[in-house]
Amino acid sequence: MPKIDPKEKRLVAIASVMIGIIVSVFSVLSAFVFKSVQLPLEWDQMIVVGMIAATFPPSVVEIIDLSWERGINKNLPRLLREIAESGKTGLTLVRAIEVSSERDYGPLTPELKFLVAQISWGMSLEEALKSFAKRARTKLAQRCADLISEVARAGGESQDIMEQLNKHIWELQSIDSERYAQMRPYSAVVYIAFGVFLFTDIMLIRSFFTQIVQLQQKVANTASAGGSAGSIFGGASQVDLNLLKMVLFHATVVQAVIGGLVAGKMSEGRLGAGLKHVMLLLLITFIAFLFFVWRS
Q1: Does residue 284 contact residue 258 with C-beta atoms inside 8 Å?
Q2: How far apart are CA 99 and CA 84, in angstroms?
Q3: Cα pseudo-dihedral 122, 123, 124, 129, rounded to 10
Q4: Is residue 264 a contact partner of residue 250, using CB atoms and an 8 Å limit?
Q5: 22, 95, 146, 264: which could form a disulfide with 273 (CB 3.0–4.6 Å)?
Q6: Which residues of 203-241 are buried (b: 16+ CB within 10 A; e: fewer)?
Q7: Which stretches of the chain are assigned E, i.e. beta strand?
Q8: Which residues contact 31 (CB under 8 A, 6 or more apart)?
Q9: Which of 229, 209, 211 is closest to 219 using CA atoms?
């Protein structure tokens, strides 16, 4: 996966938010101010379409960036192990890093080559490692760079220390992997809860509220024909099916946004990872209401 600069991520996020705001504002103005403008959908439906469009690009960028960061963390233990093995052959720490930079470590390789280039330009190993940690942007890479700097500062035989460092980093990675594996199923709980909520809303509209409206019409017809049954179901005349559809649709949208963010935070440990869940849940909401509510 390619590396995505944080500035590029911010630009994509800003552009996507602007698109969502433009669609939302245009929909509201067309519905309540410039009523002569005909929208292809209702104003709240257009807002949800804008939200889906606004979350799609950041979701893709976040997936690519997260995959790149995982590639960095995955290859760090292997890099440390091979630096330690090179040290056993008599190579210095700097030379061992230079030799390791010729190997393939996935997304870690370009950052490692740049680190070696900075050292060749006269930068100290400590400063080059700090620059490497900033470019790698992961906590594991930051900790690894700090520990290697301490090893270089201490001097002496570094291969045994590098082996212990490799073991330490591998244990940290194992803890993160275990936490990820334990928390990931909870995102499925969010989807199940959302599915139950969506199914309940649709069944209420199609089986309960629709029956009340039909009963309302029958009662009204009986009353207009001179019958006396109208007074029995007088409360049924207050049911507004379109309003109920809108309220339940809005409630499902709120559930999709909050549930998606929670799923991302629980499974990946960051809210940004929840954008793909938000987009997917909003898309499911829109399609479900389109086929089972609005067109029914």
Answers
A1: no
A2: 12
A3: -140
A4: no
A5: 264
A6: eebeeebbebbeebeebeeebeeeeeebeebeebeeeee
A7: none
A8: 39, 42, 43
A9: 229
Q: How far apart are the first and last CA of the chain?
A: 44
- Note whether 272 and 256 are within 8 A (CB): no
- Say if residues 63 and 276 touch (Cβ distance below 8 Å): yes
- pLDDT tens digits, the chain, 296 residues: what are they? 688 888 999 999 999 999 999 999 999 998 888 877 788 889 999 999 999 999 999 999 999 998 999 899 889 888 888 888 888 888 888 888 899 889 999 999 999 999 999 999 999 989 999 999 999 888 889 988 988 888 888 766 677 777 888 888 888 888 888 888 888 888 889 999 999 999 999 999 988 888 888 787 777 777 676 655 544 455 445 678 889 999 999 999 999 999 999 999 888 878 888 999 999 999 999 999 999 998 86
Question: Which among 65, 67, 71, 104 has a CA at the least distance from the CA of 112?
Answer: 104
Query: Residue 131 burial by CB count (10 A; 0-12/13-18/19+): exposed, middle or buried?
Result: middle
